[in-house]
Amino acid sequence: MSNEAKLWTAPAVIVVGFCIVMLLGIAQPSLHTTMFTIGLYALIALPLGLIYGQGGTISMAQGSFAALGAYTSAILCTRFGFSPTLSVIPAVVMPACVAFLIARPILRLPELSLALVTLSLGTVVAVGLQRGGDFTGSFVGLSGAPPLPLVGNHPVWVATTLWAVVLIVVIMYSHFVHSARGRSLNAIRVDRLLAESMGVNVPFDLSIMFAIAAGIAGLAGWFYVHTLGYIAPDSLGAHTSANILFMVVLGGRRAVLGPVLGATFFTFANDFLPGAETHGLFFGTILVLILLLSPDGILSPQAMRVLRRLFSRRDRVSRARLPGTAEVTEASR
Amino acid sequence: MTLSATGVSIRFGGLVALNNVAVSVSPGEILGLVGPNGAGKTTLFNCLTGVSKPQAGKVQLEGRDISRLSLADRVRLGIGRTFQTPRLDLGSSVADAVMLGFNPRLRQSIVSACLPFSKARRTEDDLSSRARQLIAEFQLTADPDSSAGELSLGHLRLLEVARALASEPRYLLLDEPAAGIDDVDRDLLADAIRNAAARGLGVLLVEHNVGFVAELSHRMVALVSGEVVAEGKPAYVVADPQVVAAYLGVHHVAA
């Protein structure tokens, strides 16, 4: 696979997939809303794929960072008369700053402790929002957040804008993975001592990545609150964080598109499964099966390698059949 | 103009791991550091690379005191190293594993790394071809895109040397590179070390296997129980009664 193909496969899949579903949406308009939900989850899950799949740093706080972003924007718009165009900046910066400040002490913890600490961070945020009185709207939450700038409430345009952002994130993620910085982050996952011996400032790099992940989650929160016009303490939070982690693990934490695949699967399964009480059973079973069959999720490196080998072999065989091209095939390998 | 440790002492609780040890490596020189298990070789190695900090004494790089610098900082100053147990992502390709070695010399911003058509993109092609040259030079594998997990232990050690050289170090510190590898790989490794020294790098070779070191190094230092007991030409150090005693036991010498 050439370098260019490596960089642009994932974005191309996003564009094609988005176009197909949106066209199907002409016949079935509810698909446009579904696409919004998938895009929202994908936007929160993608940076978790980055810090967990590449950096080996688990976080159960992505939902809470999204809530922070949503609340920041809602409070600024409803209480201080900001426009959503302007409040998008604090909606991203606020969760990112919080994440950066708490990152250094907690990111040295082993995986399980880190999961618990980030999960309890979600509880702190939820309690803070519930007890925030009129400022945060306490248990009821905040309503009356203005619609998104330019696109308003039109489902097709909202979904398109959101997916444009997802596309940008996927493009940047793809490029990052195939860069020196991406290799540094991977080295941190494999072995922190190795990363340090390759000149990586491990605590600082991890903190920055954690902050970027939180900032992107905040951006998703901004989309959420200005599309629905409403946010409550339990809209996004600990259960969202758990679902997001499920999507990343299921879809494939190492692959760029893993979180997007996980988000798609989760959203459609949620829509088509009867009875909310059976969801836990269904998702639990799926997760156990996936972890048994392919511990790195559906889009795992092993699965990708098998696919790539199948494709390249077929390619080679078909070319070798043409007379006079055998040497060319050999040399271009 | 050396990498040196002077008067270095480290104790772990009551155990004296290093006691007032001094060693130095000059550019172009292969220094062999030998000693039986528990002699303090790895502790001294860690002290030079920055994994542990000396409790007394100092580590200097060309006159500059680097005792308090972190491992990452020292790598950027030109102290490359390998690990006793190869450390790398066995799931990555051989090319990617070697390309990691360029990182200490790169100052790449996250923004540049994320953007298409950025400076990081142009460097990427350059790094990739340089990594492939190193892979060919070290005969690591015929297919740089194959998984690093498919390499033998000997080739993983060679890969670590190639990766360390990618950071263009001035000193190369090797932690037991010849342990557990076959003769063919050992010869490749010996060639790689000689070539590095010929290019002007100072090489410190920490080894359990005295034969391999004696054959390769210009000068040897023997550590026993945290102290330097012999230093000089390999033939001299190998014949030193204290070294022989430490390796073979006193009774064998007496008999």
Notes on the structure:
The complex is a heterodimer of chains A (333) and B (255). With 333 residues, chain A is an all-alpha fold. Chain A has one domain (3-239). Chain A has helices at residues 3-27, 30-54, 62-80, 84-106, 111-130, 133-136, 155-177, 180-190, 192-197, 202-228, 238-251, 258-272, 279-293, 301-321, 326-332, and strands at 142-143, 230-231. Chain A has a two-stranded antiparallel sheet with strand order 1-2. In chain A, helix 3 crosses helix 10 (202-228). The longest helix of chain A has 27 residues, at 202-228. The termini of chain A are close together. In chain A, 48% of the residues are buried. Mean pLDDT of chain A is 87; it is low at 318-333. Chain B is α/β, with parallel strands linked by helices and 255 residues long. Chain B has a single domain (3-90, 154-254), classed as P-loop containing nucleotide triphosphate hydrolases (Rossmann fold, 3-Layer(aba) Sandwich), CATH 3.40.50.300. In chain B, the strands form two sheets. Chain B has a six-stranded mixed β-sheet, with helices on both faces. A four-stranded antiparallel β-sheet of chain B has the order 2-1-4-5, with helices on one face. The model of chain B has no long low-confidence stretch (mean pLDDT 89).
Describe the sheet with the most strands of chain A: 2 strands, antiparallel
Gap from first CA to last CA of chain B = 45 Å
Known CATH architecture of chain B: 3-Layer(aba) Sandwich
What structural class is derived from the secondary structure elements of chain B?
alpha/beta
Morphology of chain A: globular
Largest inter-chain contact set: A-B, 32 and 40 residues
CATH superfamily of chain B: P-loop containing nucleotide triphosphate hydrolases
Mean pLDDT of chain B: 89
Instruction: Give the spatial strand order of the biggest sheet of chain B.
Output: 6-7-8-3-9-10
CATH topology of chain B: Rossmann fold
Work out the strand percent of chain B: 15-25%
Structural class of chain A: mainly alpha
> What does the oligomeric state look like here?
heterodimer
Helicity of chain B, as a percent range: 40-55%
